[in-house]
Specification:
The protein is α/β, with parallel strands linked by helices and about 220 residues long. The protein is about 35% helix and about 20% strand. The two termini are about 20 Å apart.
Length: about 220
């Protein structure tokens, strides 16, 4: 059985594909549609992007993920309502947002990817949301140091290897991907593997329903 984890990059997406629990491929994709088409033979696809947008207040998934990560909780962005993400620019988004709930620049910076995924007709039951830091926290039993540090980077590589996910030294066509993006995709793939074995947990449990969609961060 194949599963995959996907993380956003500066010019698209990168996927880590597992087969039999081992790394089968690391692949770049230009957009979500091409990723889904390229991964059509995978059973589960875990993606590091919000799936399910709130109408008003924060999503339970984001609140619970921040609480779970403690001091690393700031790595979880609060997902704003669709109307905020669809604003013409960041200044307009701040004006549209509810008082005291202006979007972060980080989440507004990935709004095109968020809308690309949430509006896609290819978003099917195979695809579910993860947050890599929540997945790594589950692996380690505690929040990890920033992946921007050597200790944080190395601990993530070690944890993945302990789980049987040994990343190759040569990523081939994905060689230009940033190390942290590949690690995040690998953590997402780990969660996809857990979901295939019915061992994955979710925040919240059970998932919240937003606009008819089951919304949760899986780990």
């Amino acid at each position: 059985m194949k599963v995959a984890g996907i993380d956003g990059t500066s010019n698209g997406w990168v996927a880590v594909v597992l087969q039999g629990g081992k790394v089968a491929a690391v692949r770049p994709f230009a957009d979500f549609a091409s990723a889904i088409e390229g991964l059509r033979d995978t059973r589960f696809i875990a993606i590091d992007i919000p799936i399910g947008l709130p109408r008003t207040g924060p999503r339970q998934a984001d609140v619970l993920a921040r609480k779970r990560l403690g001091v690393r909780g700031s790595s979880v962005f609060t997902v704003p309502p669709r109307r905020v993400l669809e604003a013409a620019d960041y200044e307009a988004a701040k004006r549209i947002a509810a008082p005291g709930r202006k979007p972060s620049r980080q989440v507004f910076g990935i709004r095109e990817k968020i809308l690309q995924v949430n509006d896609s007709p290819l978003l099917d039951s195979r695809v579910f949301e993860v947050h890599p830091e929540v997945s790594f926290c589950e692996m380690a039993g505690e929040p990890l140091p920033s992946k921007k540090t050597w200790n944080g980077l190395w601990r993530r590589i070690h944890l993945l290897a302990r789980e049987g996910i040994d990343l190759p030294k040569d990523f081939g066509e994905a060689a230009d991907a940033r190390p942290d993006d590949v690690l995040d995709a690998a953590a997402a793939a780990w969660t996809a593997l857990r979901k295939s074995a019915r061992r994955a947990g979710s925040l919240p449990d059970p998932p919240e329903t937003l606009a008819g969609r089951q919304v949760a961060i899986w780990f």
